[in-house]
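W.,

You were right to be curious about this one. When I first looked at the sequence I had no strong expectations either way, so I just let the prediction run and decided to look at it fresh. Below is the sequence, 563 residues in total, followed by the output.
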Amino acid sequence: MSEQHNSVDAIIIGAGFSGLYQLHTLRDQLNLSTMVLEAGTDLGGTWFWNRYPGARCDSESYSYCYMFSEEIYKEWSWSERYPGPQEIRNYLDFVAQKLELRSHIKFNTLVTSAHFIEETNQWELTTKNGEIYRATYLITGIGCISSANIPNIPGLKNFKGEWYHTGNWPHEQVSFENKRIGQIGTGSTGIQAAPVIAETAGHLHVFQRTPNYSVPARNAPLTDDWKEHVHKNFKEIKQVVQSTPNGFPYRISTTKVFEQSENERQTAYEKAWQKGGLQFRATYQDITTNKKANDTAAEFLKNKIRTVVRDKETAESLATIDYPYAGKRPPIDTNYFETFNKDNVSLINLKKESIVKITENGIQTTERHIPLDMIIFATGFDAITGKFFEMDIQGRNGISLKETWKEGPKTYLGLQTPGFPNLFTITGPGSPSVLCNMPVAIEQHVEWITHCIEHMRNNKIDTCEASQEAADKWVEHVNEAANATLLVTVPHSWYLGANVVGKPRIFMPYAGGMDRYRALCEDAVKNHYAGFIMNSKNSTNHSKNNLTNHNFDAAKKITTPGI
């Protein structure tokens, strides 16, 4: 394959929700030669790799999908309230076939480096296979939680049993039948996995460092009446998800916690508990911003744990939670706490005994040796920035993205980084991303990037990049938004990078709400792409001078942030 053949207008990295829609808009709306490079052997993005037992989306299916096309929305019907990986991959395959996208996707192609070549105004990409590609525009659709985080526990290489990370699960069936299994981690993934593993395991030992709140998902098959309702109300559903702070298909209550009596609150919480899902945190307006208000929800959920789990010591280990509800991403589950009532399930409280090492046949703690046939790491991801750092990305003058972000990611609107022309990041750090229903955030980003590139081409603009001034102000505003919530009060949160050794403790997503963020992005465009520097061979347009204080109002106005 010649280098000329590898040269296109735009390259997108990743064939998940982001990559597929971006390919469609650039190829079919702007008529650009466009290629998607995907490390996996098929499309799916996050859902290609995350196939672990119990894996399931935590956004309701009728909102976890594209809404740019009413036709596509109405042609697809979800089978469950919360779809699993296979159904999500089936959905993305349906979209890819509908839009004839597969011919422009190159699978099994891992990008190892991306360097900006100033002389030709192109990005040059190298793959693990040694191929070289060039493009004027480089768009990353690499996902926010796609770089598996395996803790550095001594002795893992000596373990003679099987071990897996939930974020890189084998495509082949993994049998738990009669095996002694140790699951490390009780975040969203661990909470989903444990009940399924326990069904057939000989014994499941759940190693818990940080106890977690969880609300029942109440997952169930969707009725034909519901499917018809969703299709008939497409426009209304789209309007809701695009105007709410977290991109979900429901409104956050305008009532504050202490505007109601204790009995009224308990009734409201019980109703939300029975309904299930992430909507629990929308019961009151101020749950995520007011600690005393949050305490009422937290205590309700802790009491539920104590009610469900029969063994009092285990119940207290699970319910002794020292951070606010939804201070970390709040899991939803199917019989997670009930699982600890099974005779073949044990909780290892790592606040009382810690892991010393992994041995040839188990895990040694400070108190005992636990024999194991299998270890499952449900230890999350090097989130938001991890996948970027797996590539050697270099901008102007050979400056590396890893060096630029060494003290934390510095972007403008999560879309671009100073010094990296024509590099656009879908749901990048500094955008709502993981604090939002992802397809909603993805669609907004893809459409903004598409319009930006269209503007560049119509005006013969060669490069676009965020100005340093805009990035500095945006990082400041991202911190203001986070500080207006309870999200920053959890020191061990992966939102802060605290789950990865050596990672700077910086709050990475934008907590001001997707609705507010959308307005800020639109405002930048209306002000002639304020905050972005656009260069052409004949002139330079320094849009950064158009920044106004209006763009960065104090975070005190943020009353209903994202997750």
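Here's what jumped out at me. Residues 156-228+250-377 form one domain. And, maybe more interesting for your project: The chain has 16 helices and 21 strands.

Coffee later to discuss?

I.
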